[in-house]
Design a protein that fits this description.
mainly beta
């Protein structure tokens, strides 16, 4: 992922109010988590990615499993919390929840109501990967519904990654929107996709579009089933561009609900 150029940002800001809200009238709720319980996340809906190998981005955290300090339900929210602590040879811990095998969808609309953390070194994300096994990245597809890096506050990013379009070869398809109250208020981060397009929105306003150019799998792998990932990374190739503020931890992402429509 890379930041859109200034002109693209300006055009996004100018055109946001004029873009219509996506229609949901023909869609039905097929999967959801309201996080109304207590304790660990619902194991019938969520798995964990585990480890501290950098996750392809030189990230600094160790992702833990079934550890309430890093992921828990609390006051009607899912709390994903990153801590500065020594753990399994890493200096930070966090959690990465994945719905693979428990929530996988070919086309639909996903909405996540969340409030994201502030601070240099934070890298929260709401995103999707193909549910193919084994997964081949970026060939099988990735959709970034929300990414935010703490050194560039208020700029929220949406992207897709495919074999033809990805940041490792500087061909990624991405856009950015500025949300001034992004740390103070909950916002609904959404994606809707079918065989023709991917659309990403904030509070129902679409600001990123990616269309199927019909050139084949290298450009469009999004006919695969996809699953959802929720996490906070620490540092890394993008999140750590300006280092990590070691005085801010812990930092949390609060997720009110996840709803999937088809």
């Amino acid at each position: 992922m890379r930041i859109s150029i200034f002109l693209s940002l300006l055009l996004t800001i100018i055109t946001l109010p004029a873009i219509s809200q996506t229609e949901k009238t023909s869609l039905k709720l097929v999967w959801s988590d309201e996080f109304n319980g207590k304790g660990l996340p619902d194991s019938s809906k969520w798995n964990y990615d585990i480890g501290g190998h950098g996750w392809g981005n030189n990230e600094l955290q160790y992702y833990t499993k079934s550890r309430s300090k890093n992921a828990r339900m609390e006051n009607g929210n899912l709390i994903i919390e990153a801590h500065k602590e020594e753990y399994e040879g890493k200096k930070y811990t966090s959690a990465r929840l994945v719905s693979k095998g428990k929530g996988d969808w070919k086309y639909g609309k996903i909405e996540v109501r969340a409030r994201i953390p502030q601070g240099v070194g934070t890298w929260p994300a709401i995103w999707m990967l193909a549910s193919t096994t084994p997964l081949k990245w970026p060939d099988d597809g990735e959709i970034d519904v929300m990414e935010h890096v703490g050194w560039n506050p208020h700029y929220v990013h949406a992207s897709v990654h495919t074999k033809k379009f990805n940041h490792t070869i500087s061909t990624q398809r991405t856009d950015t929107v500025i949300i001034n109250d992004v740390f103070k208020q909950y916002h609904v981060y959404g994606v809707e996709w079918d065989g023709e397009k991917v659309q990403v929105s904030v509070d129902g306003i679409i600001y990123f579009n990616f269309k199927n150019d019909k050139s084949g799998y290298e450009a469009w792998p999004f006919d695969n089933k996809m699953h959802l990932l929720l996490n906070i990374a620490v540092g890394g190739n993008w999140g750590g561009v300006k280092g990590v503020d070691e005085t801010i931890w812990p930092r949390r992402m609060e997720i009110d609900w996840v709803r999937v429509y088809q």
